[in-house]
């Protein structure tokens, strides 16, 4: 062998080992590899079936047909890798999206006029179908679970919730907390906030987590409609699940905090109700906890409505601080003092306006913590539970 092609000792040992593997072990290895391939194929088919079931909302196959010029075997293999990466992602799969788009671009199989729409559809697909994971680990044996309940229906989309109830029998209906996850109105799913709901249920409160439509698949106004629909569902179905329809609260973090703060300040704004169902039922809530809550203060966020693609008037309509009145629901705000995503003045402004109008509000600063202080631990949920129990006590 020529000097330039000499194998290093490690490579030599690997070759020797591979040659020494007995036939039976070689067969086992081949079997395992085939089994993994079969598992991938099965996972891929299941993902495609989920995607087809949601085609009316996501529009992947229609967009693919219009935008991809050559759907050949190599493309289909790359698409399969993309789908599997999304299906297994526990956090937002932005890298998988970028790699697949870059593949299409390099192979010149994407129509240039379609690139922005292709990216939008891949983003909607990924954020709708990726695995996600709970915000922290929490289990409880004293709760009952009801899963995959449809709470809102639109022409191209059904939305589901999971409901968690105290297992121990109670002699009177219990309060219910609507838990709405954050993620920039774009990412995460109801699974992310499941530990919050389980914690509430283990402490004697009913709680539900929801999936909602997300940017860029819909406009932010549609997301508000979904939050309202979830409250209406809880109230409309209160008797069936032992829920007190007069004691419904809401908790959210970041983008979810914006939604629940709006629930607490817009009980009587017809433009925000939407067409998700139970339209005859009130979407009012009686208490709200906001974690890292965006205030949507128009005086400070003049560019936000442009970023969200809405008019200034629409921005005002979905602004929690613009809608505070003397009848707003009691509010508890929890915020990290060094939050650079949703700056602390958002909660301070909300708190100040609540007090100025004589409405009950509380504010807790988490010293030295940034935006994600509530992730990976139960600190915020413990504070929230104490607030809700106090607000919904018989003495209050």
UniProtKB/TrEMBL annotation:
<dbReference type="Pfam" id="PF20434">
    <property type="entry name" value="BD-FAE"/>
</dbReference>
<feature type="domain" description="BD-FAE-like">
    <location>
        <begin position="161"/>
        <end position="353"/>
    </location>
</feature>
<dbReference type="InterPro" id="IPR050300">
    <property type="entry name" value="GDXG_lipolytic_enzyme"/>
</dbReference>
<dbReference type="InterPro" id="IPR049492">
    <property type="entry name" value="BD-FAE-like_dom"/>
</dbReference>
<keyword id="KW-0378">Hydrolase</keyword>
<dbReference type="InterPro" id="IPR029058">
    <property type="entry name" value="AB_hydrolase_fold"/>
</dbReference>
<protein>
    <recommendedName>
        <fullName>BD-FAE-like domain-containing protein</fullName>
    </recommendedName>
</protein>
<dbReference type="GO" id="GO:0016787">
    <property type="term" value="F:hydrolase activity"/>
</dbReference>
